[in-house]
Amino acid sequence: MDQTQNMTVGVVGLGEIGLLYAELAQSFGCTVIGADADAYQRSQFKQQTGAETHEDFQVLFERDLDFVIVCVPNKFKEVVGTAALDSGLDVYFEKPLAHNLESAQRIVDAHDQDSSVCMVGYYHPFYDPVVCLAEYLDSGELGDITHIDARFTHRRWVPNRGSWYTSRDIAGGGVLQDKGSFMMSILHYFGFESIETVTATTRTEFVQQDEYVYLEMWGGEGHENVTDVEDSATAFIEFECGTTATINVAWAVNTAPENTYRLHGPEGGAFLDLREPTLTLYRSEQGPPDRIIDQQIDVGVNEQYLNNQFLNDPELQRDQLARYIEHVRDRTQPTRSSLTDALQVQRMVEQIYDAANK
Amino acid sequence: MSEIGVEAADGRTIGSVEKMIDILEAVKHQNGAGLTELTEILEMSHSSIHHYLLTLQQRGYIVKRGTTYDIGARFLALGGYARMQQNLYHIAKEKIDELSAATGWTSRLVIKNGGTGITLYQAVPTTLSEFQTYEGFEEDLHATAAGKAMLAELPPGDVADFLESSDLTEHTDNTITTPDRLLEEFESIREQDYAFDDQEHFDGFVCVSSSILSSDGAVLGSISVSAPEEEVDSDRFCSEVSEQIQNATGVIKITHTYSDWNSE
Question: Fewer C-beta neighbours within 10 Å, C or N terminus of chain A?
Fold first, then answer.
């Protein structure tokens, strides 16, 4: 990390996520400069990080920056992101790439591979248990996967309720956009990305309740009183390769919370639990004697992950940001969580929304 | 007039401009008026008023039908331009249309201009043939949901100034006309995040409204939805429509914060 010590990073969008990335960048020895149109966010940010801030991101882009981290509300990612790309800057986008597919497409169109190194904050493809399962899938030892059962459900985890996070206009959707995009990024990383058909439904059960009961709220209560998004969704997907998938995602639901992926193949299956985290393989071998094998795989997981209930731990963002900085230094485009990967994730999410709105 | 008027640099205003505005506002107030009628209302001579009207007529700001003078359409040229200059209009217009379509009732975007509210934009569903308000409609802030929603979010000093300068005109039996009751009303508005107008300005019409604030808490305007009292259940109207209004005002607030960025 020695060479990062002289790096200067521009952070645009100084909310919770902007603050998180700024602190991570500072922990790598980078100098951070922030920009946000919201004066309150700027003052909070300055107080927490000591970093200099600008009101106008264009003024920030005129500074001598090594790269930019864009974590503005989803709807404004395009205006900030394309301006950064047009200036030839390297850009790291917080996920999702945009609030809808068209906007995401315009960002990708503005990206010149020769001048800007870009990545999107889908961190699971850098996470050891996920990487490990992907390798088992690639090796073919499970056979062609026939079905995936993916569940990412929280008891009560509506983030920053009432802010742009729960605005259809600004965020582009609710839990499907927020957590569902993570799930799609994992499926995409596993090689399931072209949806043939999808049936889906979305629900708004908790987010609009005046007496929404919760123990903890990420980002605290929002101040804009906007709550017009779904807080849970269910989808049945058929991929072009023939594999099917059921998707259950919820910010709030009255059942046991889960963050799991069950993959069934003819030669074997896998169970990935990201809350623990654990990876289990299910196989059989012909004897004699015949045997059924349930095999727990211990992956090189850092202790810090183990107490991490919701996998919102900055460690995952830290690992990914460190990878990104290597790419910036080496002038190479990432092969995981690239802009085009994120565009495909955006397309998958939009296909589910379209199915739900039919 | 002087309540809103900005004084000239030397502390004085120009008398003839004041007179001209008095004449225009009297014409509007009377829904068009003859010379004799205006002479009775305004403390000005017959010939003086006539000269003003003639000048304004030549410039297209006054029209004459028979013996009646009325406001000319040229004011709409200025009004339309004034609206185009309002950032809020551009940000909120689509949301007003959506609200009207979603609720089936009239939805308005109102801004505070000095001591009164002005309708910057309104959407009336095609099922409603006519409505009392129009774009540019001016209203007493204390007598409407839109006005009360804005007053409730003003700094205490500004509220005190307003209560002192306004005569809190009674429009219906339900109009709140005492400062104490208004202050209580503002408190409950802040608590529930919306204002309700229970036929306080127009008999037979109820409104619900929420203010639009900037990220630093300044009042930008308000959005209200109005319905005939006999066609709605007030409690349900309040709870359901106020939620839809707040979804709109929240988005407008966020968009307003980043509007300089968006236009680049």
Answer: C
B264 touches chain A (CB under 8 A): yes
State the smallest CA–CA distance between residue B82 and chain A in angstroms. 25
Give Cα A93 to chain centroid, integer Å.
10
Which B residues, 190 through 249, put their C-beta within 8 Å of a C-beta on chain A? Answer: 193, 210, 215-216, 243, 246-247, 249
Q: How far apart are CA A273 and CA A261, in angstroms?
A: 7
Are A283 and A268 in contact by the 8 Å Cβ rule? The answer is yes
What residues in B contact A170, CB-CB < 8 Å? 251, 254-255
CA distance B126 to B122: 13
pLDDT digits (tens, 9 = 90+) for B178-202: 999 999 999 999 999 999 999 999 9
Q: Answer yes or no: is the ipTM higher than 0.95.
A: no
A227/B247 Cβ within 8 A: yes
Contact B249 A79 (CB under 8 A): no
Could you tell me what percent of chain B has a pLDDT over 70? Answer: 94
Give the Cα separation of A116 and A190 in Å (integer). Answer: 26
Bridge partners, B139 (sequence order): B117
CA-to-CA separations, A173 to A177, B10, B93, B149, in angstroms, rounded: 5, 55, 22, 28
Cα of first residue to Cα of last residue in chain B, in angstroms, is: 39
User: Contact, A155 vs A253, CB < 8 A?
Assistant: yes
Angstroms from A205 CA to nearest CA on chain B? 15
In the numeric block, the tokens 């196989």 are attached to A283
